């Protein structure tokens, strides 16, 4: 608050960002909504649905990762439905370096490729032949390395359009492998500086991505192909943050520098200004807060959860992230802690809007992957690795 220069930057960039605000609505959703409007004979209730406006601003549309469309029950239209096909399927199943046993569930042959599909099961105690049905799945990345799989896996290299990376190393497979072209992207051990450009996420053939041991700082871009890379590809940099590393702090120097272009950093700063001037309302949903406290308790209030206190807004807590619009918890990521002990708490299933789960490098995390996770219908990324999680991979992950 004492920094007039920062404040005026903020004001200008607020003006700037509101003038140029991009359409949030997905064009496919917009098209579908127009068909719905038409099907209801362009009834008056849809008057705000016009081509030149952003569908996320439209009346009776709730834009999240999959829009919920509700017809007002007060009128003659009493239908209420959820556009089920727009709920994205689980697209990232990262279960490497655990103590998982058994074979790959038959249900994995039904895995859907919404956009990209990453499955990493490396370094477990998995065995047996792979279900033949996996041949029909359009994987982007499949890593089965360091298990005891047997039999044929050549079907991964036939006719799969989006396949970019297959790792079958250190198993007992036996088959003839075809040709696979990979693009190498390894910049490790340099003196490269600055922030990672968001366009990186759009490179479709990114392979062996590794920017470790550089001087990068700021948030790691999300989406696309970048989502599949583990934190070791970003290790030993100046100040990189965000998934798969811990969340970005509110005051990140890189973010302050690039504030003109960074709406997310801006809104964080804006909220922290509100907060510091005592005007902030709690954004956290009380149900989410309750569930998070159950998780904290299940892990014996480990130090990792020290910022999770009753008098603070859970959207500001370490290890979690809220959606910017709905303020529901969408991400939970607990990493690198040997005090976090016990099974994955069922309360994880009580965060209904979770899109990403990360339990990474937690040697005392034990037990199976709980059934409660099946309740999370918006889950897109499940990342449980470097733990002592046991039991077979649950089939419900593919449903
Ligand atoms: C990335 O590069 C570093 C440094 O060469 C190396 O230690 C690390 O294993 C690499 N990570 C991956 C996933 O290849
Ligand atoms: C599993 O637990 C053992 C014993 O505590 C530990 O040494 C090992 O590192 C753990 N495994 C992983 C992958 O964390």
Question: Could you walk me through the main structural features you see in this protein, from its secondary elements to its overall organization?
Answer:
Pfam families: LRR_1, LRRNT_2. It is found in: Cell envelope. Belongs to the polygalacturonase-inhibiting protein family. The chain is an alpha/beta fold and 399 residues long. It has three domains: 4-86, no CATH class; 92-179 and 283-398, Alpha-Beta Horseshoe (Leucine-rich repeat, LRR (right-handed beta-alpha superhelix)); 185-273, Ribonuclease Inhibitor (Leucine-rich repeat, LRR (right-handed beta-alpha superhelix), Alpha-Beta Horseshoe). Helix content is 15%, strand content 21%. The protein has five helices and 23 strands. It has helices spanning 4-19, 27-39, 253-257, 263-276, 286-298; strands at residues 61-62, 68-70, 80-82, 92-94, 99-102, 118-120, 125-129, 141-143, 148-151, 165-167, 172-173, 183-186, 193-194, 206-210, 215-219, 239-241, 320-322, 329-335, 342-343, 356-362, 365-366, 381-387, 390-392. It has an eight-stranded mixed beta sheet, with no helix packed on it. Strands 11-9-7-5-23 form a five-stranded parallel beta sheet, with no helix packed on it. It is globular, with a radius of gyration of 23 Å. The N and C termini lie far apart (49 Å). Mean pLDDT is 75; it is low at 1-21, 62-85, 177-186 and 255-280. The structure holds 2-acetamido-2-deoxy-beta-D-glucopyranose (2 copies). The site of one 2-acetamido-2-deoxy-beta-D-glucopyranose (NAG) has 5 residues, from strand 22. Residues 188-189, 210, 212-213, 232-233 line the site of one 2-acetamido-2-deoxy-beta-D-glucopyranose.
């Amino acid at each position: 608050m004492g920094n007039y220069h920062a404040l005026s930057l903020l004001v200008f960039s607020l003006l700037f960002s509101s003038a140029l605000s991009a359409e949030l609505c997905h064009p496919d959703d917009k098209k579908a909504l127009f068909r719905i409007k038409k099907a209801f004979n362009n009834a008056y209730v849809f008057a705000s649905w016009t081509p030149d406006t952003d569908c996320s601003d439209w009346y009776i549309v709730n834009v999240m990762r999959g829009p919920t469309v509700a017809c007002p029950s007060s009128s003659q239209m009493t239908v209420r439905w959820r556009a089920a096909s727009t709920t994205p399927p689980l697209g990232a199943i990262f279960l490497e370096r655990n103590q998982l046993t058994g074979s790959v569930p038959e249900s994995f042959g039904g895995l859907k490729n919404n956009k990209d599909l990453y499955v990493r099961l490396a370094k477990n105690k998995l065995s047996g032949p792979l279900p033949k049905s996996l041949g029909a799945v359009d994987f982007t990345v499949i890593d089965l390395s360091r298990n005891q799989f047997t039999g044929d896996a050549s079907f991964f290299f036939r006719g799969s359009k989006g396949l970019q990376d297959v790792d079958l190393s250190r198993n007992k497979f036996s088959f003839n492998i075809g040709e696979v072209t990979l693009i190498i992207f390894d910049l490790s051990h340099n003196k490269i500086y600055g922030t990672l450009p968001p366009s990186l996420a759009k490179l479709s053939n990114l392979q062996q991505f590794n920017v470790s041991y550089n001087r990068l700082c700021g948030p790691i871009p999300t989406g696309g192909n970048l989502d599949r890379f583990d934190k070791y590809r970003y290790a030993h940099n100046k100040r990189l943050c965000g998934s798969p590393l811990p969340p970005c702090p509110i005051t990140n120097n890189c973010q302050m520098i690039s504030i003109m272009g960074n709406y997310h950093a801006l809104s964080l700063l804006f909220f922290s200004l509100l907060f510091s001037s005592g005007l902030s309302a709690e954004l956290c949903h009380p149900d989410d807060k309750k569930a998070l406290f159950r998780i904290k308790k299940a892990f014996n209030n480990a130090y990792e959860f020290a910022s999770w206190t009753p008098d603070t807004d859970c959207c500001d807590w370490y290890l979690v992230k809220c959606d910017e619009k709905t303020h529901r918890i969408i991400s939970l990521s607990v990493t690198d802690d040997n005090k976090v002990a016990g099974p994955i708490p069922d309360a994880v299933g009580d965060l209904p809007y979770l899109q990403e789960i990360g339990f990474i490098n937690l040697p005392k995390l034990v037990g199976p992957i709980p059934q409660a996770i099946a309740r999370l219908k918006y889950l897109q990324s499940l990342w449980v690795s470097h733990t002592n999680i046991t039991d077979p991979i649950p089939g419900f992950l593919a449903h």
